[in-house]
Amino acid sequence: xxxxxxxxxxxxxxxxxxxxxxxxxxxxxxxxxxxxxxxxxxxxxxxxxxxxxxxxxxxxxxxxxxxxxxxxxxxxxxxxxxxxxxx
Length: 87
Prior knowledge:
By secondary structure, this protein is mainly alpha-helical. The protein has helices spanning 12-24, 29-35, 40-48, 54-67, 69-82. The longest helix has 14 residues, at 54-67.
């Protein structure tokens, strides 16, 4: 039976996974924000769903792409498992 697809949603886990994947690759969240023209203070609210308009949705997609969608998905699922939210 195929493994069900996990829906990636904004929230604290989204930010934790993305920031951790950036650090693991030797990349800076602050530099990423600056390079894309965002204030560092706006990144976490966009990632966690604190702001959830079209701009935030596009930024989250950009965040996924910046670390690699497969990498992000694997880490996100692992994070959900470790929190007991996924079997």
